[in-house]
Fold:
Amino acid sequence: MNAGGVARSMAAVAAAVVVIAAAGTATGTVYTVDVGGTGDYDTIQHGLDAASEGDTVLVLPGVYVGEGNRNLSFGTKNLVLRGNPLDPAATVIDCQHASGNRALRLVGTGQDTTSVIDGFTIRRGRVAGPAEPGAGIRCWQTSPKLLNLIITENAAEFGGTGGGIYCGNSSPVIRNVTFSLNSADNGGGLYCATYSSPKLRNVSFSDNVAANRGAAVYCGTGSDPALTDVTIVANTAGNEGGGLYCFQSSPELNRVAFIRNEAFQSGGGVFCNDECSPSLANVTLALNEATDTGGIYLVDSCDPTISNTIISYSTGGAMSCQGGSDPTVMHCYSFENGSDALCGARPDNVIGVDPDFCDYPNDDLTLASTSPCLPGNNEWSELVGAYGEGCSQPSVEPRSWGRIKALYR
Structure:
């Protein structure tokens, strides 16, 4: 080996030590993959094939493309596939928009949460049709941990579902993940199908697109995901559910913000259809748009519980309840939505009072110290909305959303 090769090999070993130390002690054998050829293997699939139950495949920084670096499978083993959790942008699985290719395919192989995928950028997967969902990652009857990921520019085309991740009969842990610029017919960012209940924490969805429904998240029959500390910003649906679409499902949302999402028909922030009973607690919906109801749209006997939630500056109305939907709405604020009316049972709500966001035109929805939504400023002694105090006073004069939009016409 020449001097350059020795130096690179030593650097690879040093990088491996740093990443393993940052992620915690690895169990089993550690196999390294290096696109430059100085690791144990030069493609990710070769490393996965060599590993045994409980081993770690450590992928060193670089851009991994072509055969052996896409449509990756763990087989029936529980493994750890690790890039760089501290800098997931450094280790990239790039499917290059090649038709029929995604980054990972975990289908019917039984992985549980001892399987971990950690510290990667997953980009430019491309699949087509309902029979091949999940352009970035497809999980079917598998529930791995998906940690510290950037999932971007993946497309499920021609009736496809799950631009970023598709879950079918799967309940992965999804933590510290960003979904951006993904697209699908339904579920541009994340699609939860057939009794899937993933647990999301510290996750963001931005600029994802659904031609039909659920630009950021789609929840199908029997799927009850839990979303905690999640931001859903500037996603666009051709029909319903710019942020979240629910069908016969009951997700739980806690400290979730919906900002500037758009649906060309109904439910710019949230759309629920057919006996959904989601729970929304400490949620903020602001600046969302739809032809009919920019905030929350309920149809066909949906009975959510909505508490400590702010709906503000949305077009087309704060809430709409159709087809026998009867939500319980309590300790909520509705302000400047065209119509601020809240439907269903309405104990102790506040209509038409400014929540005093710090800087909502720039998407800062933390609360000024004067906000009535802070625990010390309301009769309930409770926080209302997704965020706490962030400034002493709002940085802009309060204006209606209609007046703000007029400035840009």
Summary: The longest helix spans residues 3-23. Residues 167 and 192 are 5 Å apart (CA to CA). The chain has a mean pLDDT of 92. The helical segments are 3-23, 44-50, 401-406.
